[in-house]
Amino acid sequence: MTWLRAARSVPAGTRSRTGAGVLPVRARRTAGALAIGVVLLGAVSGCSVTGCSGARQSTATIAVHATAWSSAHPGHTLSVCLDSTCEDVTADDSITAPSSDPSGHAFRITATDTISEQQVGRVTSRLAVGQESSACGNVSFPTGTVTIGGDGGLRVS
């Protein structure tokens, strides 16, 4: 009963049975909220406690210009693939695909007419290395532009 009387004279949550080495409840809650805030801030900025998340490093992006092909084939749509990631394109678009190498491996780019289901163009090319500033510093990633001519020819730059 001695402990209960002593605890009543001290603000609730600030005393333990032993009274030693235990943070008050309010301090523990504040520390927990601060820790959660740091983790969320790291997630938003793209960094983590162990370093950068590398999400941007694991993708490649190409800009697709298919206006000439679309003009020569009105009403048709192309399915343009960057390796195994495909998007339907009628004019200008972009495609983002997984990449295991920030400097880029040799990507297979194909264009298929979705109506006739005929492949109109195919090329294998290493993309240029792009750089982007992030909260974690400069990040490298493969990038490029593919232009599809009216005859289906693919030009990568």
Task: Describe the protein.
The chain is of the alpha+beta class and 157 residues long. Helix content is 22%, strand content 42%. It has helices at 2-8, 25-45, 67-72; strands at 47-48, 51-52, 59-65, 78-82, 85-89, 92-98, 106-113, 119-126, 128-134, 137-148, 154-156. The strands form 3 sheets. Strands 3, 6, 9, 10 and 11 form a 5-stranded mixed β-sheet that branches. Strands 5-4-7-8 form a 4-stranded antiparallel β-sheet, with no helix packed on it. A two-stranded antiparallel ribbon has the order 1-2. A hairpin with a 2-residue loop joins strand 9 (128-134) and strand 10 (137-148). It is elongated, with a radius of gyration of 28 Å. The model is unreliable at 1-10 and 37-50 (pLDDT under 50).
Rg is: 28 Å
Low-confidence stretches: 1-10, 37-50
Estimated share of beta-strand residues = 35-45%
The outline comes out as elongated
End-to-end gap: 82 Å
Major pleated sheet: 5 strands, mixed
Order of helices and strands: HHEEEHEEEEEEEE
Number of helices: 3
Structural class comes to alpha+beta
Summarize the structure.
With 157 residues, the protein is of the alpha+beta class. The chain has helices at residues 2-8, 25-45, 67-72; strands at 47-48, 51-52, 59-65, 78-82, 85-89, 92-98, 106-113, 119-126, 128-134, 137-148, 154-156.
From the structure above, extract its key features.
disordered N terminus; 4-stranded antiparallel sheet; 157 residues; alpha+beta; 3 helices; 5-stranded mixed sheet
